[in-house]
Hints:
The chain is of the alpha/beta class. It has three helices and 19 strands. The protein has helices spanning about 1-15, 20-25, 30-40; strands spanning about 15, 45, 50, 55-60, 65, 70, 75-80, 90, 95, 100-105, 130, 135, 140, 145-150, 155, 160, 170, 175-180, 195. The strands form four sheets. The chain has a six-stranded mixed sheet, with no helix packed on it. Strands 9-12-15-17-18-19 form a six-stranded mixed sheet, with no helix packed on it. A five-stranded parallel sheet has the order 2-5-8-11-14.
Amino acid sequence: MLRSFRKIRFWLQAERIGPDMPLTHLLLFSKRAGHWLARKKLKVCEAGAEIRPHAYLVETKHISLGKNVVVRPGCKLFAVADSQGRGQIILDENVLVGSDVHIYVSNHTFGDPDQDIIYQGHDTPSSVHIKRGAWIGAGAIILPGVTVGRNAVVGAGSVVTRDVADNSVVVGSPAREVRRCTSGRDPSASNPPGAISA
């Protein structure tokens, strides 16, 4: 009985959310209970933010979700505890996150050819910031230190290794800019304002 109590307490207190934390994972199937859990575990969880079942979040006290951000199934957000504030993941309000998006703030080091990589440790963590209104397509991977600009689009399956400018569209591996989103177009044009233009 005591062992079961300790396990339940660990699930509630650990800075982790995911299927490997069974009790807390079940809470995600209820929108209300899931939001309560997210507010308890994350650094910031604003109104309308939601974590769907089968998402993984690690070092949750270093993850912030703005208003209306939904972390969909299969997403993996790996923050890192760092006393200097590095290693955070920040998703501003109205960010769209597709399924199976991965966000990392640190990589393995691999500079010593005589030592197995597992023993070489990690790079210094570097925060990831996805700015307001951006859209991260399904299966995209965001690597350490990247800032995705406001209303930018990251195409599905892209690997983002460097910053993405506001209102730009990036695709590929590594992701490269292919378009800019514009506004205030001529009303007689076939595309409405805010449409993607080449």
